[in-house]
Specification:
341 residues; alpha/beta; Purple Acid Phosphatase, chain A, domain 2; globular; Alkaline phosphatase D family protein; EC 3.1.3.1
């Protein structure tokens, strides 16, 4: 019965009438709030920052494509980051909330780029500048933007594990046989994280004592059939991460992803885990795939949202529960899901 209860997922509710300040359900105790999003262009209206501020997050997490630079010109990259810092709503957020995050291809500097991008070390320094990482931080000399951050409170603890799916990623395999852009590599060929980052990730999960472990990946993990960038293009890496999560016995592991210009919940049961693995995709902040007509995802829960939105996670330590919300302009909760761990 205990295992059955841990799998209970509340019915997804589509709510287009939530009040602007209604992103947090006052009827339920919230101990910690995490907001995140991806795919943000400075030249488009940045409509959501007031709603993100209103949600009063303890942390904001960038999920990648935080700007759209696609360049090896660091002065241009820097100017775009500066433009984002100057957006009034975002400027207010960074002054009241801790900001973490990763990059994806467009802020990395090369569309669909990986380890072959020759300006990645310079780009990494500009990324750390945007994230306001001190010059003396060890992150400044590290290869790749992966990192962890622990939030310890009286009620419980949360570990944020941020991955870099760009710096070490080996080439993709173009699909010349179908209308899809990319097809999976042969099993065992290539890597997303690189061995050093893999060892680091395995160690972080194995030794985590946190009540919840949130893994941030710029690309989707569970949705794998759409033909764009996804962990599924490296099937052996998918297996390794699932096995790592199960073997670690880490509590409350959740994946956050971006990249796709759509938002959705995906969920998969893994042998050896008492709760399902959830991949919450939130994309995009300023532009979306408004022509979306459907794509396969056997792990999808509920509907795909293809209007501008951000993701919100409200944690309750006593109930071992997370309320997941996809939130649109005006604080409208477009879709939500509850999971007990």
């Amino acid at each position: 019965m205990k295992k059955t209860l841990s799998y209970l997922i509340a019915v997804l509710i589509l709510s287009c009438s939530a009040p602007k300040h209604g992103v947090v359900d006052s009827a339920h105790e919230v101990d910690f709030t995490l907001a995140f999003g991806s795919c943000n262009k400075t030249e488009l209206p940045n409509l959501l920052w007031d709603d993100i501020v209103d949600s009063k997050p303890n942390v904001w997490i960038w999920g990648g494509d935080n700007i759209y630079a696609d360049t090896d010109d660091m002065s241009l990259l820097r100017a775009m980051y500066d433009a984002q810092q100057a957006v009034p709503g975002y400027s207010k957020l960074v002054n009241v909330t801790e900001v973490l995050g990763t990059w994806d291809d467009h802020d990395y500097g090369l569309n669909d780029g990986g380890l072959e991008y020759t300006s990645k070390d310079k780009s990494q320094q500009e990324f750390w500048n945007f994230m306001r990482v001190p010059m003396q931080s060890p992150l400044r000399t590290q290869k790749g933007v992966f990192r962890t951050k622990d939030f310890n409170m009286d009620q419980g603890s949360i570990k944020i594990i941020i991955l870099d799916t760009r710096y070490f990623r080996t080439p993709l395999t173009p699909d010349h046989e179908t209308k899809k852009r990319i097809k999976p590599n042969e099993y065992g060929i290539g890597t997303i994280l690189g061995e050093g980052q893999w060892v680091w990730l395995e160690n972080e999960l194995l030794h985590s004592k946190a009540d919840f472990n949130i893994i941030v990946s710029s690309i989707q993990f569970l949705s794998r059939e759409h033909g764009f960038e996804t962990w599924g293009n490296f099937p052996h890496e998918v297996d390794r991460l699932e096995q790592t999560i199960v073997k670690s016995k880490a509590k409350g592991v959740v994946l956050l992803s971006g990249d796709r210009h759509i938002s959705e919940f995906s969920r998969k049961s893994l042998d050896g885990m008492e709760y399902p693995l959830i991949d919450f995709t939130s994309s995009g902040l300023t532009h979306t795939y408004r022509g979306f007509t459907g794509e396969p995802n056997p792990y999808r829960v509920g509907k795909v949202i293809f209007t501008e939105s951000f993701g919100l996670l409200n944690f309750n330590f006593k109930a071992k529960k997370i309320d997941f919300q996809i939130v649109g302009d005006g604080g409208v909760v477009l879709e939500k899901m509850e999971q007990v761990f």
